[in-house]
Amino acid sequence: MFKLPEEVVKTTEKFSKALTEFLEGRMNADRFKGVRVPWGIYSQRGGRAFMARIRIPAGVVTPQQLKALGECSLNYGDGVLHVTIRQDIQIHGVRIEDVGKIISYLKDFQLSPRGGGGNTVRNVTACPLAGICPKERFDVRGHAIALTEFLLQDINSYRLPRKYKIAFSGCERDCALATVTDLGFIAKRVDSVEGFSVYVGGGLGAKSMVGQLLEEFVSSKDIAYVAEAVKRVFFKYGERRDRHHARLRFLVERLGVEGFRNLYRKELEGLKRTTHIALRDICLRYPPDVEDDISVAGDSQFEAFKKYNVFSQKQGGYFAIGIRLPLGDIPAEDLIRLADIGERFSISEFRTSQAQNIYLCNVRADMVYPIYSELKAAGLARLYIDTILDPIVCRGATTCNLGLCNSKGLAEELVSNLEAADIDLDTLQGMTIKISGCPNACGHHPTGTIGLHGIVRRVGARPVPFYKILLGGKVMEGGTRLAEEVGLVPARNVPAVLKTFLTRLQGSLERYEGNVHDYLTHEGKHIMEKVLEEHSYVPPYEEDPSFYRDFGQEEDFSLVGRGPGECGAGILDMIEADLEEARAKLSLAEEKAHDTGLLKEILYLSARALLVVKGIDPKSPEEALEAFYREFIESGIVSPRFRDLKARFTTLRGGMGDFEYARALYEEVRSLYASMDSNFQFPTRERATEEVGALDLRGTPCPMNYVKAKLFLETLPTGSVVDILLDGGEPIANVPGSLEKDGHEIMAIEDLGGFYMVKVRKGMMEVKGDQNAT
Amino acid sequence: MPLRDEQIERYSRQIILPNIGGKGQEKLLEARVLIVGAGGLGSPVALYLASAGVGTIGIVDFDNVELNNLQRQVLHRTDTVGMPKVKSAQEAMRALNPEVRVVTYQVRLTSENAEEIVREYDMVVDGSDNFPTKYLLNDVCYFLKKPLSHGAILGFDGQLFTMIPDQGPCYRCLFPSPPPPGAVPTCQEAGVIGAVAGVIGTLQANEVLKVLLGIGRPLLGRLLIFDGLSMEFREVGIPRDPNCPLCGEYPTVTELIDYEEFCGLRRGRSGPHG
Ligand code: SF4
Ligand SMILES: [Zn+2]
Fold first, then answer.
1. Are A352 and A293 in contact (CB under 8 A)?
2. Which helix (H) or strand (E) element contains residue B57?
3. pLDDT, tens digit, for every residue of B28-46?
């Protein structure tokens, strides 16, 4: 089973400290946000309540853990938990002061929200039925768990350009969605060696992409090297400024998969040379095969349950039972009850699934019926898991800060509509409905056979909730297709649209034999287009205001209160928080320039602000100044006048000189931040001055012409080519030679009649002084 | 900040040098150097640093210019006799290079003010003529981690070395504490040749430029001794003393000390520097 790595346990204390500081008003909200988000603690819409996203590696969870989670929700949350599409379990409605209690309570159960949010290594997922699925090539649970333990050890796993998601699928059916994840592993056996094909740069979002093949085959023992090497490439080259293009898939797109692979291979080589990584051997047990089958006759309800919710395992005589959670939600009492049933029947393993459900595993044939009876009594025996009556839905506008539409409200309405309609689930078997509240695809709509995402359109002057409808998504190694857009429909009409569409589709599907996905993207698409047409009209507000109101909402639809997302809140927020604090202290210090404490803090904050982008999280002012010196002053990014920063800090006496110094440092850092580019790079002081081009030195006598040429070349990167115009006589006789001596290359000298054009390529030779101590 | 045309012209002969260039010149323009003593040693230092374009030069001296100074203190002129030395020095430097910011301190350096003044600078030049100041400077520069160019002259002899705190020896590694009053003659009693002050001060200026630019090999752990009569330079290696009361392993000097004036002539009357 998964064990919390030392790093996580250790940093738990640090989190509590930050929380205390925040609660006591010693840390401002922005800075604290930079701490809590990578700890998987998000604010919910409205800002007062918080959500803790607990990672469940491979979705493997014990009844004891489920109970602990349920209790946290009861004691500190709003009493309802949520299973996410990436197998995490979320506790909602938590007051910030209780977050620390949840973290320390869950720690004893080897559970933590660490890395549940922000720019971190997120939950490493696996097929929901890994280890028990009859079709799998081999069990991938251990790989996902061990890799999690390895990656969470490294501090850089929490300061990536953006989130980093990893998934393991047990076969080409790709139930873990490895082909649409940042890094995906799909089990494969080559010459009886267990290993994986590896996909990179997949992802669902505003711009979804299918992962590309990075490695044909890597053996199981190498997966940590692969994941770490990809992580390092991402860390070094990923886009950090522009959050919308920060995900790994944009880097792969930018470099091309070949370019990416080159960088990756280089990292991989270096890594293998210098580091020995051995993943922990995760000890997983399986029940031995037994000769047994479920044999309870006469109960038609149980028969239906068996048909829709019970799955044979690869271990003979054992079954997995699926618990359908509407919208992925489960009340805490139910979760505790479920865990309880598990415990009583000695079920030691549960799973969370990508379809936001929960499975009980390793149920012996003769236990299926008794467990079913208990589930039924507890109201947990909902049929139709993983069918179109079990749509996948993101949290949407109710809790999500980005969400446009109330996807959850829609889903409820939709399911009750479909249940009432005459729809044959068997004909539509394998179809899925996936709904996101906005284009961000947290509901994975691009992989749904039917996908929907919220969007806003103005009708008259009023905003109206709409959904975009997509068709034909599917996931499978080598055959993953993203759903294609078909059209738009007002939110209010979505249930009617889908009901009509499915009924018509069912009619034609019955006669159709062949690939359902092909059908959906061709004939199916025409059917949908027609249905959409029939439902596209939005009456004026006065006629029917219900179009202007989202599901489950009391008020008319509006966009007020939708802030920027939290997920990548990390770095820029932290920088700004530091600068803001430094600025506030500066204005205080203006009156109290003798207050050395204040001045020290300004120096400290200014020095610290930009260190995050260098991946440095200083623990003390000394560390911050040291790192600032190294990263910014020595490297010529910051003016050398701050060379004495460290000494200055320790000898500060207060007074105008010190105040001016502190102010100057703050100003310098602030303008540096303003000039930071999208890669978190800073212009060095010499650059940024002039443009490459021609330099006209006619009329400038010797040796000034040489001096100017030399200065101009200094400002350029090595390899730049410049044309220099020189007078005849002394200048043309001397300058080219001198430049050559400086290490530049004279490519051509052209006589232009009366003057000369010299083509110079800037050389490598940057003569630097060598300070030589004896 | 790109160099202006006039600056390029003014400093062109040093910009030309491969290990200075535009970048080096910018470093100099941003640099801040404190010269303690506007006397025989301080004079060439001040003039050469100003001419090289060291952006900010601080100068400390309490005294006024006297006629007997002019024999060796080339910063001052007959018509500035009677003027505070720092003012006279400021005028001279401004006339030479108006771009340089000259900060004047007409004070005696003491344990009270030393830190506050020294703190503002990147490097310090010791152009003083007395032991209390030399020790005070050595100690304060060590505490504030500022490089210090030490220089001294006597008759036809001179010496210098450069201290970079924690990277090489300090003055106390050589001479742990000042000699008792009266044991060593001050230059007032011993007399001095102006040109010797010029030689040593000029070498100090060169050391400062190297340290500011981070080039070459400063006189770190090396005492350079000049004998103007036999016209010899000698170099003596000076190791760092692990028992140094200041920079050794178990320091006993942990705060600034005002040693007693032992020249006897200084108080009340202006004493010559260097
Ligand atoms: S898809 Fe949009 S609404 Fe849904 S959770 Fe993601 S960001 Fe929020
Ligand atoms: Zn010493």
1. no
2. strand B56-60
3. 999 999 999 999 999 999 9
User: For the sheet containing A121-126, what is the strand order?
Assistant: A121-126, A164-169, A183-190, A193-200, A212-219
- For residue A594, count other CB atoms closer than 10 A to its CB: 14
Which A positions 646-685 lie with beta carbon below 8 A of chain B? 646-648, 651, 653, 655, 657-658, 685
Residue A196 has what pLDDT? 97
Determine the residue of A402, A408, A456 to mutate for testing ligand 1's pocket, defined as the one with the most ligand atoms within 8 A of the Cβ atom: A402
Q: Which residues, listed in sequence order, are joined to residue A454 by a DSSP beta bridge? A: A467
Q: What is the pLDDT of residues A688-702, one digit of tens each?
A: 333 345 678 888 888
Write out chain A residues lying below 8 Å of B30, CB-based.
639-641
B222: pLDDT strictly greater than 90: yes
The token pair that represents B71 in the structure block: 């024999």
> Does the C-beta of A400 come closer than 6 Å to ligand 1?
yes
Q: Which residues surround ligand 2, an ion (CB under 5 A)?
A: B 170, 172-173, 244, 246-247
Answer yes or no: are the C-beta atoms of A106 and A88 closer than 8 Å: no
Amino acid at B50: A
Whole-prediction pTM: 0.58
Nearest by Cα to B129 from B85, B163, B77: B85
Task: Report in angstroms the alpha-carbon separations of A204 from A257, A394, A746.
Answer: 18, 13, 52
**For chain B, how long is the longest CA-to-CA vector?**
55
Rounded CA-CA distance A90/A98 in Å is 15
Q: Does A691 contact chain B (CB < 8 Å)? A: no
- Three-state DSSP class for A759? strand
Picking from B56, B217, B229, the residue whose alpha carbon sits closest to that of residue B154 is B229
Take atom 8 of ligand 1 and give the residue whose Cα is closest: A403
Residue B114 neighbours by CB under 8 Å, 6+ apart: B136, B137, B140, B256
Residue of A nearest to B32 (CA): A641
Per domain, the residue ranges of chain B are: 9-262
Q: What is the distance in angstroms between the Cα of A734 and the nearest Cα belonging to chain B?
A: 13
| Beta carbon of A396 within 6 Å of any ligand 1 atom | yes
What backbone phi and psi angles, to 5 degrees, belong to A277?
-115, 120
SS3 state at B245: coil
Q: Which atom of ligand 1 is nearest to the CA of A437?
A: 3
Residue B171 and residue B248 in contact, taking contact as beta carbons nearer than 8 Å: no
CATH of B9-262, one of 3.40.50.10140, 3.40.50.300, 3.90.226.10, 3.40.50.720: 3.40.50.720
C-alpha A428/C-alpha A746 separation (Å) is 73
Residue-averaged pLDDT of chain A = 86
Q: Please write the tens of the pLDDT for every residue from A111-166.
A: 999 999 988 999 999 999 999 999 999 999 999 999 999 999 888 888 888 899 99
* B218/A771 CB distance under 8 A: yes
Cα–Cα distance between B19 and B154 in angstroms, integer? 34
**Longest CA pairwise span in chain A (Å):** 111
Let me know if A84 is exposed, middle or buried by CB neighbors in 10 A (0-12, 13-18, 19+). buried
Going by the DSSP 8-state scheme, the letter that residue A198 receives in this structure is E
The SS3 assignment for A208 reads coil
Distances (CA, A) of A266 to A226, A230, A233, A253, A650: 11, 10, 9, 19, 43
- The residues, any chain, with a CB within 8 Å of residue A433's CB and separated by 6 or more, are A388, A391, A392, A414, A448, A449, A450, A451, A452, A498
Residue length of chain A: 774
Q: What is the model's pLDDT at position B229?
A: 94
Buried b (16+ CB within 10 A) or exposed e, B190-206: eebbbebbbbbbbbbbb
Residues 6+ apart with CB under 8 A from A14: none
